[in-house]
Design goal:
Blueprint (H helix, E strand, L loop, with lengths): L6 H8 L3 H8 L10 H14 L5 H8 L4 E6 L5 H16 L3 E6 L4 H13 L4 E4 L6 H9 L4 E4 L9 E5 L1 H14 L5 E6 L4 H16 L5 E5 L5 H14 L5 E4 L2 H14 L8 E5 L3 H5 L5 E4 L2 H16 L10 E4 L2 E3 L9
Parallel strand pairs: 1-2, 1-3, 3-4, 4-5, 5-11, 6-7, 6-8, 8-9, 9-10
Antiparallel strand pairs: 10-12
Amino acid sequence: MKKKLSIVDIAKHLNISKSSVSFILNGRAQEKRISEELVERVTKYVEEVGYKPNSFAKSLRTGKSNTIGLMVEDISNPFFAKIARLIEDRTYQNGYKMIYCSTDNNTQKTLELITMFRDRHVDGYIIAPPEGIEDEINSLLKEDLPVVFFDRYLPAIDTDHVVIDNRLSTYNATIHLIEQGFKNIGFVTFSSVQLQLQNRLQGYRDALKEHNLKASIKEIVFNQNESVMYDPIHSFLKKQKNLDAVLFSTNHLGVLGLKIINELGIKVPSELAVVSFDDYEVFQLYSPPITAVAQPIEAIADNIITILLNKLSSTSKQKTSQSVTLSTQLMVRKSSSKDL
């Protein structure tokens, strides 16, 4: 196996000091008053041998790896995938690379992934956090490592976050169904203490309370195995024969719910109106198209990476935490109309 060249090997071959080689490769030749002739010799030799610096070793010397860690609930979810793509583009344009992973909302897995990112000397963190990681996040912040939460945040942690108005979003979606004449509106959500899901549930409750309507809620325990979540939703939709509308709190539940609705032979919207959180292409292709709460994905991604890059900038004076709350848009389609 061919040995990988090091700075020491280059210095020996050119009969110069390894510090000179290091300064030249790190763009500090002018600062250290290294002659143009020597810079040219080193540059030419490096090109000839195809030398690539060890990024890990460089991060140990400089304290920066020029990488950003992105931790989401599920990178295969269309919402998180789109956010990741947009953030990756911006990070690359600004000289950073991105490492991303799925936490599955698992606290222990998240803690292990944070440890991995620490070992890789990641410069900043973007996290859709599960509960139970408060101590680890506080440790990062004490080390002046910027952390930006999105999709949800942890109330006990004072750090930047970018979220949407979850309560108002489901409130508006529920009011839309009420205005269409639906009175027995079900709500299918995950059983979770996460702030975004609790706020969505609250918005649904508030809308019904204002109109003296009874809530019908089904909370599902999240499981990576979709078949485990199938039976509770199937049972709920089959037994609640008085339901005339249902609101799903995530697109994951929305897609699974539509599969079950099809299998039960329920006609949408004449027998059951449907609205889901998190709009994406599948809902537009369904027949009839599904009304959905659309999150401002581009604005979310833009706010996240702008805040993080400002924190990473050595010239930034911004020390206080920023809290950004964005509005959503209800994309009204035929699945929630009694006029179909």
